[in-house]
Every structure is written in C-alpha cells, then in structure tokens.
Amino acid sequence: MSERLIDLDALALRSGEATWMEVVLEPEAPLLGGEQLALEEVPIAARVDVSRTTSGYALRLRAPVVVTGTCARCLGPARLVLEIDAREVDQGEVDDPDLRSPYVGEGLLDPLAWLHDAIALALPERLLCRPDCAGLCEVCGISLNDVEPGAHIHESEPDLRFAKLRELLD
Ligand SMILES: [Zn+2]
Ligand SMILES: [Zn+2]
User: Fold this and answer.
1) Is 167 helix (H, G, I), strand (E, B) or coil?
2) Residues 26 and 63 in one domain
C-alpha cells in the first residue's frame, strides 16, 4: 500500500504540540527535460514532522532520494543524491488559500504527492555525472573525462596564428 494518507486530526495534537512519523513511499521516477530518470533505493523511508499551530499545521518532509540517469554532457551514467527537506503550512481554519497546503485535504496529508513534487523541485536543470564533467570531444566523440586535460588535440585546420608566427620566424 503506497497510497498512504496521514490523518492529521487523528493525531489529536494540541496547539504547540508536535510529533513525527516515518512513512514508506514509492514515488514514480521523475522526468528531467524529457528524459526518464530512475530512482534507486525505493521504497523510500521518509520522515514527516507535524506541528499543531493555533489554526492548523506546520509540516516538514524529509527523505533521502537517489536519482540515476544519463549525464547531459558525456552521456555516461549519472547518479545524484538529493536530501529532500520540504516544508508546508496548512492553516485549515483560515480562509486564505495561500495558507492552505495542496497536499492536505479534509485533514488528510498526502505524503506521496508531496514527495513527488519535492523531488521535481529539487532536481537540477541538467543531470551531470559530476559538476565539472568535461563532456565529449566535438570531433571524435570520446569522453574528455578519460584524458588528461588539454592533452586531447586534433590536427585540424591550420591555426592562422601559428602561420603568422612561422612567417615571422622564417
Ligand atoms: Zn558526464
Ligand atoms: Zn577527439
């Protein structure tokens, strides 16, 4: 049973009181720029903190999430560890929609929908195998991560600066 809702009111917290629980969640693997990523180590043990405020709840969701996919630069395998730490407020007893959480309805918290969105928000624009990935050689396509920096050079069109230099030396 992955679709598990937390009945906040059933926790019977008084204003100022707090509790937490562990929930085991199996979110769908996210998409990034149209690419299907994968999640390692699912199901995920997430921690949900619930604090009762005077007019509702303050909520916190924490979960270790490991995302895998293809490096956008060198096309090698990429693995990213995300420490999800998200907060929500649901002041259910006031009318301001800004103070309502989209993950709480009728006093029930949906941690799976929340984690799903929190993962999407935590993803970088592009997945890289490492922050300084050197990418692929534009000429021959080998991974520049596998060669000494600057050591991989192709004999291509003659460099005009060198031609000038040679003229001067002649
Ligand atoms: Zn890479
Ligand atoms: Zn090359």
Assistant:
1) helix
2) yes
Instruction: Report the separation in Å between the CA atom of 149 and the middle of ligand 1, taken as the mean of its atom positions.
Output: 14
156, two tokens: 């291509």
- Distance in Å, CA 144 to ligand 2 centroid: 8
Taking all residues of the chain, what is their mean pLDDT, rounded to a whole number? 90
Q: Cis (ω within 30 of 0) for the bond into 158?
A: no
pTM for the full predicted model: 0.82
Counted domains in the chain: 2
Tell me, in angstroms, the distance from the centre of ligand 2 to residue 138's CA.
6
Matching residue, tokens 């008084």: 14
For 77-116, the pLDDT digits (tens) are 999 999 999 999 999 777 788 889 999 998 999 999 999 9
Report pLDDT for 2: 40
Q: Which domain holds residue 94?
A: 6-133
CA–centroid distance, 65 to ligand 1, in Å, is 20
